[in-house]
Every structure is written in structure tokens, then in C-alpha cells.
């Protein structure tokens, strides 16, 4: 590599789904690696409350990677070269994700292959996806677009309101499977059971992170009585997989908070070996990071419908979405134009140097 550039940006706050942000923008960074032939690979670091190393530590890690020059002069000719970068995945997952993704993008461009084909010789051409909805109008639109799986956040509003909203979603999209995401809102197994009794289990594919992260013993007890499959998201980023195997049916993997696609791929394969299903989701980051998550999902064997759709109205998935399947860009690298502005990073405001 002959140059490394990091551009800071502001990401949308997603106040609709996470009121605790209070409308404040989220921190994000776009990292570019350029080789001696002028090819550019891009990676994404995006922080999210409750996950990863946080904005301040991520920014420091990215600054250090640029300033110490350790990436300059490195040759990336194979996946092994990417793995050998020695990134601090556990300590700084977002920064590591950005560097690794840029390296994979660059490698794919150099070899004329999509990133998914670097990870798996015969990747899927399209991946089943779910839609995150907030009410019946969203659900009806998603069903009309051919989506067969819907995800609904619960646990923030009074239980009666959640039950009414869920009933309206069921009526608006009766053929869709429903995933309920509590984001750890129910403090105890008994509270979770009361909520499930009130919400009803009809058409519910699974309930995601019903209890706060770290309560795996309680989650195991809940799973035995829940009457519905459980998925773990926050716990899936940090807990040993062996500890999750009898607490969940599904693990939700976000490459951003696992330190990159290679670590996420290993974790997904290990999870499958333990009998856990895998659902890959992005972290509401830019088009660059979301493309990486899509390529990862395409490299897996039969993942559950994944959370990979664009959350940005100005950046629709358009013709890439058909019959509930999101097509993987067949072009080299991530398939994101390295010369174009990146939707989802609308307010770039400087460089780390």
C-alpha cells in the first residue's frame, strides 16, 4: 500500500429506533487504502451505543494506524495477507473492521473478483433479507416489495402499545414471518414471559435479545419456557459460542463489532458447527460497511434471512431486491464505486492524519 486515508463523517442518529441518542449524530469513518497501481479499497468504521469500543477509542485507533505507517509498504496478494495484518480486533473492532474491509476490497479489485468469492469459492448470488418495520404501513410496503421476514422492535413502549402495534403488523402482512427484537428490554425471564404472553407467539419466528446482555443463565431458563425460538445479538458479539449454544437458537452477527469479515466468517462457521443458525446484519453504517456484510452473508451456507437492507431513504436498494432476495454486486471488490460519494456518510468533515 502506498497511502492510507481516513475521513471522518457523521451518520444519521436513527432516533426512530434508538431514542437514547437524543437526535445526536453518530460517529463514523471511511478508510481508504491505495496500492501502487492506483487502485483504491475502502472500509468503514461506525460506532453504536452498547457495542464495540466506542467513538473516542475508535478514532484514536484509526489515527494511530495512519500515523505509525504500519500499513504502508504492505503487499496484499491473498486472504492470508489480509489475515496477517495483525489487527486489534478484540480491543478496537470498528477500526479493525475498517482496515480489513478496505484490504479485502483492494484485493478483490486487484484480482477481479467480488469479496464474497474471496471468502468462499462458490458464494450465493443473492441473500434472503428481512425488513425492519415500525408499524403496519412499513409492514405493508415491505410485503408488497416481496419481503417475507419482518423485524419489529419491542420493549420500549408500554406492553399494551407493543401488542397493538404487533397486531396491526400481523394484519398488514399476514404472510410474513415476524422477528421481535427487545434489545434486552425485559429484565427477567418472568418479565419476558409476561411480555410474550401479551404479544402472542403466532407467526413469531424468533425473539431477539429478550434479556440484557450477559444474563446467559437466565436466558437459558427462558429458552426452556418461551415457546418460541430465541436469537442473541449483543451477547453474540462477546460471549463464547459454547456459552450461547444452549441459550439461543440463532446468533446475530455484525461484522462491524467482530473486527471484520474474517473473524465474523470464522464465528459463523463455528456457530453452525454447534447447531446454531446464523443471521448477518449490518450496524446501520454506510454503503461500504453494508456491502461487506452482504458479501459475508453470501459466503455462508444457508444463513437465515439477514438484516442487510439500506436504512437510508435516499439510498434505496432498488432493483437489487427481488422476491425477498438482495443481489450481491458481481463487480470486483465490494461493488461500491470508490470514486463516488458514499451515501450514509453525508457530512464528511475532515481527515485523520
Short summary:
With 353 residues, this protein is of the alpha/beta class. The protein contains twelve helices and 14 strands.
Primary descriptors:
353 residues; alpha/beta; Enolase-like, domain 1; TIM Barrel; 2 domains; seven-stranded parallel beta sheet; four-stranded antiparallel beta sheet; 12 helices; disordered C terminus
Topology record:
Layout: E1 3-11, E2 26-34, E3 40-46, H1 55-67, H2 79-83, H3 93-111, H4 115-119, E4 126-128, E5 131-133, H5 136-144, E6 149-153, H6 159-172, E7 177-181, H7 189-199, E8 204-208, H8 216-225, E9 230-232, H9 241-244, E10 250-253, H10 255-258, H11 261-273, E11 277-280, H12 287-299, E12 321-322, E13 325-327, E14 351-352
Parallel strand pairs: 5-6, 6-7, 7-8, 8-9, 9-10, 10-11
Antiparallel strand pairs: 1-2, 1-14, 2-3, 4-13, 12-13
Helix pairs in contact: 5-6, 7-8
In words, what does this structure look like?
The chain is of the alpha/beta class. It has two domains: 3-112 and 341-352, 2-Layer Sandwich (Enolase-like, domain 1), CATH 3.30.390; 126-327, Alpha-Beta Barrel (TIM Barrel), CATH 3.20.20. The chain contains twelve helices and 14 strands. Strands 5-6-7-8-9-10-11 form a seven-stranded parallel sheet. Strand 7 (177-181), helix 7 and strand 8 form a beta-alpha-beta unit. Helix 5 runs parallel beside helix 6 and helix 7 (189-199) packs parallel to helix 8. The model is unreliable at 17-22 and 343-353 (pLDDT under 50).
Amino acid at each position: 500500500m502506498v497511502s492510507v486515508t481516513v475521513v471522518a463523517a457523521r451518520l444519521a442518529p436513527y432516533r426512530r429506533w434508538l431514542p437514547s441518542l437524543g437526535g445526536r449524530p453518530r460517529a463514523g469513518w471511511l478508510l481508504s487504502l491505495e496500492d501502487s497501481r492506483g487502485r483504491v479499497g475502502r472500509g468503514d468504521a461506525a460506532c453504536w451505543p452498547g457495542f464495540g469500543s466506542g467513538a473516542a477509542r475508535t478514532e484514536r485507533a484509526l489515527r494511530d494506524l495512519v500515523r505509525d505507517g504500519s500499513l504502508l509498504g504492505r503487499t496484499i496478494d491473498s486472504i492470508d495477507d489480509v489475515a496477517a495484518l495483525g489487527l486489534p480486533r478484540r480491543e478496537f473492532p470498528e477500526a479493525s473492521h475498517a482496515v480489513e474491509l478496505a484490504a479485502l476490497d483492494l484485493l478483490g479489485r486487484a484480482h477481479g473478483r467480488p469479496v464474497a468469492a474471496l471468502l468462499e469459492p462458490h458464494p450465493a448470488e443473492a441473500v434472503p433479507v428481512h425488513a425492519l418495520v415500525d408499524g403496519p404501513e412499513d409492514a405493508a410496503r415491505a410485503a408488497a416489495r416481496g419481503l417475507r421476514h419482518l423485524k419489529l422492535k419491542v420493549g420500549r413502549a408500554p406492553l399494551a402499545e407493543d401488542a397493538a402495534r404487533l397486531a396491526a403488523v400481523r394484519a398488514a402482512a399476514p404472510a410474513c414471518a415476524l422477528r421481535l427484537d427487545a434489545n434486552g428490554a425485559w429484565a427477567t425471564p418472568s418479565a419476558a414471559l409476561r411480555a410474550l404472553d401479551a404479544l402472542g407467539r403466532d407467526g413469531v419466528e424468533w425473539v431477539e435479545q429478550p434479556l440484557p446482555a450477559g444474563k446467559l443463565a437466565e436466558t437459558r431458563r427462558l429458552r426452556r419456557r418461551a415457546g418460541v425460538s430465541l436469537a442473541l445479538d449483543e451477547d453474540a458479539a462477546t460471549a463464547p459460542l459454547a456459552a450461547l449454544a444452549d441459550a439461543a437458537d440463532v446468533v446475530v452477527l455484525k461484522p462491524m463489532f467482530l473486527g471484520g469479515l474474517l473473524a465474523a466468517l470464522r464465528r459463523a462457521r463455528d456457530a453452525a458447527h454447534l447447531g446454531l443458525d446464523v443471521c448477518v446484519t449490518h450496524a446501520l453504517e454506510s454503503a461500504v460497511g453494508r456491502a461487506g456484510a452482504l458479501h459475508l452473508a453470501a459466503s455462508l451456507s444457508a444463513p437465515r434471512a439477514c438484516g442487510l437492507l439500506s436504512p437510508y431513504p435516499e439510498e434505496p436498494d432498488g432493483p437489487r431486491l427481488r422476491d425477498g432476495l438482495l443481489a450481491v454486486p458481481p463487480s470486483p471488490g465490494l461493488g461500491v464505486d470508490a470514486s463516488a460519494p458514499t451515501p450514509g456518510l453525508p457530512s464528511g468533515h475532515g481527515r485523520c492524519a
